[in-house]
Design a protein that fits this description.
Layout lengths: L12 H18 L5 H19 L1 E3 L20 E3 L6 E5 L6 E2 L13 E3 L4 E4 L13 E3 L4 E4 L13 E3 L4 E4 L13 E3 L4 E2 L15 E3 L6 E3 L12 E3 L4 E5 L12 E3 L4 E4 L5 H4 L5 E3 L4 E2 L15 E3 L6 E2 L12 E3 L4 E2 L9 H4 L8 E3 L6 E2 L14 E3 L4 E4 L13 E3 L4 E5 L12 E3 L4 E3 L12
Parallel strand pairs: 3-5, 4-6, 5-7, 6-8, 7-9, 8-10, 9-11, 10-12, 11-13, 13-15, 14-16, 15-17, 16-18, 17-19, 18-20, 19-21, 21-23, 22-24, 23-25, 25-27, 26-28, 27-29, 28-30, 29-31, 30-32
Antiparallel strand pairs: 1-4, 2-3
Helix pairs in contact: 1-2
The chain binds 2-acetamido-2-deoxy-beta-D-glucopyranose (12 copies).
């Protein structure tokens, strides 16, 4: 999703600079000695804002039209000042379709607490001068087209609470000394082009709750020091080139609610006691890795789990019961080697009938044998995707399939189903994709199928 950048064209930058210098000269000349501190400070802010404006070359919504001498800068669109000092404390220009670079003069807004430029088309580097903003609490530069490295000088913004740099084109390493930011609770750096290894110092962030490093080019193993982040709630390392085992140090983080390790090259088996070590986990994805072994039985005890995604690994053996997992919304266990080709392989499906909000159930491309149990008719009424393809299932398709009236995708192809296709399949009025091929179905395609708007 690369946003198409307007080509920077030669603005009258020189002219603007000249103008600013003239204004500065006049302002400085006008300021009385007794007023020096205040006037100096607020004039710096005004000039910094004008410099910032000068680097913005596309402003289709004309949000910066109020940024002129006819208004005090505290009244300019997106600018909030502190009451007492009239210094800029918030610069909020999110989602304004702005394009340009971020002026280094931003670093002169020394009272800034919030810099929110998210969801625009800013490009080029994050200026090092952001590191001068020692009062900054929230830095939101996500959803732009920023490139170059994450400036290590950010580590000087010692009051930062949240830093969102995700969804840009940032490159280079994760700066090791960022972790000196002891108040940082959120660090979003996902969806960039960051490379190298995750620095060991990541364990030094003492307040971190959200760490998003997903969709980068990080390699190496997941450092054990991550286990020191005892307040972590959300961790995404998905879509990188990480190797090694499931990071066992993570099992010391009982606060964890979402853990996304999808699309890496991790090996080995899952820890056996996730129910005890990560009791608050709601989201667990390890899909598209190289995990082996069986699905830990203790998963059955994780009643708070919403999403369990282990698609495309090499898991083997039986699938445990999901009886206690009534909060399950998404169950993806396809493309493994699960099942033993035996009659009771799909018994676990009946344990899913308690998951009344389940909307995705994918068990395709495994080694499941036996028949599909009738209880599938008692699966969640909101189920919209049910994928059984590519197994060794036999017998007839239960007519109770017709209860799942909100199904949009049903695939049972590439099995060994026999008998006739149940006419109740015509109840599935919302089906957009129905795959029945490569089975031993006999007889007619039910006339009720005519009701399907495929
Ligand atoms: C700067 O501050 C001084 C005194 O604190 C005030 O008189 C002056 O109006 C301010 N100027 C601006 C542009 O805010
Ligand atoms: C992002 O900005 C676009 C306009 O450029 C707007 O349509 C969209 O709603 C914004 N997204 C969010 C989440 O604010
Ligand atoms: C403002 O920032 C620029 C760029 O970092 C710097 O060169 C300049 O000295 C600063 N001006 C003031 C008044 O602080
Ligand atoms: C960022 O962009 C993505 C798509 O590129 C969009 O889904 C998301 O809502 C945007 N977020 C914000 C905060 O604008
Ligand atoms: C981190 O590194 C940068 C550049 O090397 C430096 O400017 C900054 O002071 C360092 N921060 C800390 C907290 O050591
Ligand atoms: C940060 O982490 C590194 C590596 O784990 C460690 O050697 C260093 O002492 C830590 N620094 C601080 C300031 O805690
Ligand atoms: C969990 O933390 C304890 C105490 O800090 C430590 O002894 C143990 O090695 C850690 N376990 C893992 C798997 O990192
Ligand atoms: C589930 O939890 C109970 C109580 O803690 C425990 O006795 C049981 O062994 C657990 N079941 C599994 C399969 O781990
Ligand atoms: C549903 O959950 C209840 C309470 O946990 C349990 O008694 C019941 O056996 C479960 N039903 C199925 C079909 O697993
Ligand atoms: C099963 O494998 C085939 C062939 O590799 C693939 O096209 C299909 O998408 C897979 N289906 C599922 C549900 O994973
Ligand atoms: C489906 O649920 C109903 C009502 O809870 C129950 O009477 C019936 O036996 C169930 N059917 C199957 C096949 O589990
Ligand atoms: C498919 O099922 C038929 C009986 O319906 C059986 O004779 C045949 O061996 C099965 N084929 C495979 C590949 O399992």
């Amino acid at each position: 999703m690369e946003s198409q950048l307007p080509r920077p064209h030669g603005t009258s930058r020189a002219a603007t600079l000249w103008l600013l210098h003239s204004i500065a000269a006049i302002a400085l000349a006008a300021c009385s000695m007794s007023d020096v501190q205040g006037a100096h400070g607020n004039e710096t802010d005004r000039l910094a804002l004008l410099e910032f404006k000068a680097k913005i070359i596309v402003d289709p919504l004309s949000v910066l039209s109020s940024w002129s001498s006819s208004h005090h800068y505290c009244q300019w669109h997106g600018v909030t000042c502190g009451r007492r000092h009239q210094r800029v404390t918030i610069l909020d220009l999110q989602s304004q379709e702005l394009s340009g670079t971020i002026s280094p003069h931003i670093g002169n807004l020394s009272f800034l607490r919030v810099l929110d430029l998210q969801n625009n088309s800013f490009y080029s580097r994050i200026p090092l001068e952001v590191g001068h903003l020692s009062r900054l609490l929230h830095l939101y530069l996500n959803n732009n087209s920023l490139s170059g490295p994450i400036p290590p000088s950010l580590s000087s913004c010692s009051n930062l609470v949240s830093t969102r740099l995700h969804n840009n084109k940032l490159q280079g390493y994760v700066p090791a000394n960022l972790s000196s930011l002891s108040k940082l609770r959120e660090l979003w750096m996902g969806d960039n082009g960051l490379s190298g290894e995750i620095p060991l110092s990541v364990g030094n962030f003492s307040s971190l709750e959200y760490l998003h490093l997903g969709n980068n080019k990080l390699r190496g193993t997941v450092p054990d020091t991550l286990g020191n982040l005892r307040n972590l709630i959300f961790l995404s390392l998905a879509k990188n080139n990480l190797v090694g085992n499931f990071p066992s140090s993570l099992t010391n983080i009982s606060s964890m609610e979402a853990l996304d390790l999808a699309i890496n090259q991790l090996v080995g088996s899952l820890p056996l006691d996730l129910d005890i070590t990560l009791p608050n986990l709601q989201f667990l994805s390890v899909m598209y890795n190289r995990f082996t072994g069986s699905i830990p039985k203790s998963i059955s005890n994780m009643s708070q789990l919403n999403d369990f995604q282990i698609t495309s690994n090499s898991f083997t053996g039986d699938v445990p019961s999901f009886r206690k997992m009534s909060n399950l919304l998404f169950l993806g266990i396809g493309s493994n080697y699960l099942g033993r080709g035996l009659a009771n392989d799909l018994d676990f499906l009946c344990s899913l009938t308690n998951a009344t909000n389940l909307y995705y159930l994918g068990i395709g491309n495994n080694s499941f044998g036996g028949e599909v149990p009738k209880c599938i008719g008692n699966l969640s009424i909101i189920l919209d995707m049910f994928v059984l393809e590519g197994n060794a299932l036999s017998g007839t398709m239960p007519s109770s399939i017709g209860n799942l009236i909100n199904l949009e995708v049903l695939s049972v192809s590439l099995n060994n189903f026999s008998g006739s296709i149940p006419p109740e399949i015509g109840n599935l009025k919302k089906v957009k994709e129905l795959y029945l091929a490569y089975n031993m179905f006999t007889g007619e395609v039910p006339h009720t199928l005519g009701n399907l708007s495929i």
